[in-house]
Amino acid sequence: MQRVLTKTVLFFIAVSFIRGNATCDDEMSFYADGVLYAQSDDWNALSAISIPCDTTVMAIKCQDKGGIAGIKAALDNGIKTNISWKCSNTFESGWNQIGFNDSAWSFAVIQDEASWRSHAASLVGKADWIWTCACPGGKT
Ligand SMILES: *[C@@H]1O[C@H](CO)[C@@H](O)[C@H](O)[C@H]1NC(C)=O
Ligand SMILES: *[C@@H]1O[C@H](CO)[C@@H](O)[C@H](O)[C@H]1NC(C)=O
Question: What separation in Å is there between the alpha carbon of 85 and the centre of ligand 1?
C-alpha cells in the first residue's frame, strides 16, 4: 500500500508592533510616520496604540476644547511624553512626516499632573502631561 504524505508549510509573517496608550485633553489624533493610527475625543479614556516597530516619527495632534490641556502617551519601547517632545501651536504641512525639520519648534512644557487627578491612571508616573506652554487655564 502506498501512502502519500503531504506536508503543508505555513509561512508566518512576523509583523511586530510597538504598543502603548495615549490620551489628550481634548481631541487626539495619533500618527506614526504620517499615518493616522488612533483618534479620540475623550480625554478621560486611554486609546490603545499599536504602530509598526520601524516607526520613525510619532506625532500627536491635540485640540483643546476649553479648560486644562495636555497630551500624555507611553509606549512599550520606552517612548513617553516628556520635555524631550517638540511642539507647536501652528499647523505646518508635513509636520507629522519623516524628515520634518522641527528645529524651530519649542520643547514641550510639563503640566501639573494633579490637574487631571487620577485620570489616565495607568500612565501616572510613566509619562508626563505635556503642552506647548505653562498655561494652566488651557489655550495653546
Ligand atoms: C524623555 O523620554 C525619553 C523616552 O521617550 C527618554 O529617552 C528621555 O531620557 C526622557 N527625558 C527626560 C528628561 O526624562
Ligand atoms: C532646519 O531649520 C533650521 C531653521 O529653523 C535651519 O537652520 C536648518 O538648517 C534646517 N535643517 C535642515 C536639515 O534643513
Answer: 9
Q: Which atom of ligand 1 is nearest to the CA of 80?
A: 5
In this structure, what DSSP letter does residue 10 have?
P
103 pocket-lining for ligand 2 (C-beta < 6 Å): yes
pLDDT per position as a tens digit, 72-103? 999 999 999 999 999 998 899 999 999 999 99
| 82 CA distance to ligand 1 middle (Å) | 6
The pTM of this model reads 0.86
Q: For domain 17-131, give its CATH number from 2.170.130.10, 3.40.50.1970, 2.60.120.260, 3.40.50.10470.
A: 2.60.120.260
Cβ atoms of 134 and 109 closer than 8 Å: yes
Which residue(s) pair with 52 in the sheet? 17
